[in-house]
Amino acid sequence: MNATIKVDIRQLPHGKGMALPAYQSADAAGLDLLAAVPAETPLILPPGKYAMVPTGLTIALPRGYEAQVRPRSGLAAKHGVTVLNSPGTVDADYRGEINVLLINHGEAPFPIRRGERIAQMVIAPAVQAQLVPVKALSATDRGGGGFGSTGR
User: Fold this and answer.
1) DSSP one-letter code for 14
2) Domain for residue 135, yes or no?
3) 152 within domain boundaries
4) CB–CB of 96/59 below 8 Å?
5) pTM for this one?
6) What are the tens digits of pLDDT across the range 57-109?
7) Which domain holds residue 68?
8) Residues in contact with 37: Cβ distance below 8 Å, sequence separation at least 6, in sequence order
9) Count of the separate structural domains present in the chain
10) Does 26 map to a domain?
11) Which residues contact 152 (CB under 8 A, 6 or more apart)?
12) Cα separation of 106 and 81, whole Å?
């Protein structure tokens, strides 16, 4: 399936001059988000600390869609830096700046420079559920078995 939707995007003043999010390959699911920090003062993320990193972007998603902000595997594998609230959700009615909450699980301070790819954004359909109160749920083989109940 190769579906395309249009998403309005606006660069804020502190994001001017940076590239818009882009897919890095023909079949990529996520658009790379860039850090809109000042060029002269990179944000230094100490080990064990987290910070909200601006992207300088706002978007208007169509109704029935969300944007998921997810980690970049390379940052996590090479530096221990990941998205703290992964995946972060951008709702269709949100019009504020997209920020990325990064945490450094690594052992060294990690500098975040202007224009650096810090996360990826996946646009996905979002379904709202209608909750129906009932007296009992249908039975299954698993039942109430929770964490680890289906194997290691």
Assistant:
1) G
2) no
3) no
4) no
5) 0.89
6) 999 999 999 999 999 999 999 999 999 999 999 999 999 999 999 999 999 99
7) 8-125
8) 43, 53, 54, 112, 113, 114
9) 1
10) yes
11) none
12) 7
Q: How many other CB atoms are found less than 10 A from the CB of residue 6?
A: 8
pLDDT tens profile 33-44: 999 999 999 999
Beta strands in 71-125 (DSSP E): 81-83, 88-90, 99-104, 110-112, 117-125
Helices and strands in the chain: count of H runs, count of E runs: 1, 11
Alpha-carbon distance of 121 to 31, in angstroms, equals 5
Q: Quick one: pLDDT at residue 149?
A: 72
CA distances from 51 to 37, 83, 86 (A): 12, 10, 14
End-to-end Cα distance, the chain:
34
Rounded to the nearest integer, the mean pLDDT of the chain is: 95
Q: 132 in a domain, yes or no? A: no
CATH assignment at residue 118 = 2.70.40.10
